[in-house]
């Protein structure tokens, strides 16, 4: 897919939160989102994601890593849903066995993708969660 | 004449990249990294690769410290460090580093200390090879940019 073919979602003013303890993945995920015109913030673990929401911040989409220190993605997703956060949450992880994936999904995910995240995987998430906009 | 310098350097860059892909050192995720570089972040590849180097060296140092400890038994910690290395290596397209990390992780899951020590040596070897190749690539890129910047007015 060429750069010109990438849909620009700037018109929709979507916002996203990247939740990942890996700085390489943070950079790449933020860039992928920015390339699609999605404003985004980043935090390093599930607790920071919960704290961000407790302080009043809200996002259309959360890209949630599974394995993180302090509070992992499964715990954070559960907590956010308990708080009544209705943002779309997509789990992203390098590896997960079926049991771990099931537990992560049941915590309240709307979608799940294996890392590395690519433009097409991100578009798939957006499309599945009805964020995709035809240009 | 100066244009030939730029062309020669670009050919060198292409040759180096082709070799790294052929050897399996890099995969298509490195191409994505290059595709994400644009006018808003013209040094994106360089910046992300340097973050990868910084983080990887911390993780490799920690792995060595853990395994050198005679009373070491925390294989779970080894696994956590390796998950990080596998994840970031996959994301930047460092296929061979990723694969040897996966093999190392298998040894840690079996609590196999000699296997872990061997695994660490292999990972360190592959990592340093990748780092040297990336430095060579960045040097060529820098030379190409400098050569392209030196132009006589038409």
From TrEMBL, chain A:
This protein's record includes keyword Phosphoprotein: yes
UniProt cross-references to SMART domains, sorted A to Z: REC
Signal peptide start-end: none
SUPFAM superfamilies from the UniProt entry: CheY-like (SSF52172)
4-aspartylphosphate: residues carrying this PTM: 65
Record-linked InterPro entries: CheY-like_superfamily, Sig_transdc_resp-reg_receiver, ST_Response_Regulator
Membrane-spanning intervals of the chain: none
Keywords: Phosphoprotein
Recorded superkingdom: Eukaryota
Response regulatory domain ranges (all copies): 15-130
PANTHER family reported in the protein's UniProt record: TWO-COMPONENT RESPONSE REGULATOR, TWO-COMPONENT RESPONSE REGULATOR 24
Protein's name in the database: Two-component response regulator ARR22-like
Species name: Camelina sativa
Gene name of the encoded protein: LOC104706961
Automatic annotation (TrEMBL), chain B:
Ranges of residues in domain HPt: 41-137
Record Pfam families: Hpt
Key words, A-Z: Cytokinin signaling pathway, Two-component regulatory system
Domain of life: Eukaryota
Gene3D superfamilies: HPT domain
Primary localization: cytoplasm
Subcellular localization: Cytoplasm, Cytosol; Nucleus
Record carries keyword Endoplasmic reticulum: no
Domain notes: Histidine-containing phosphotransfer domain (HPt) contains an active histidine that mediates the phosphotransfer.
Function: Functions as a two-component phosphorelay mediators between cytokinin sensor histidine kinases and response regulators (B-type ARRs). Plays an important role in propagating cytokinin signal transduction.
UniProt-recorded name of the protein: Histidine-containing phosphotransfer protein
Species this protein is from: Camelina sativa
Name of the encoding gene: LOC104703436
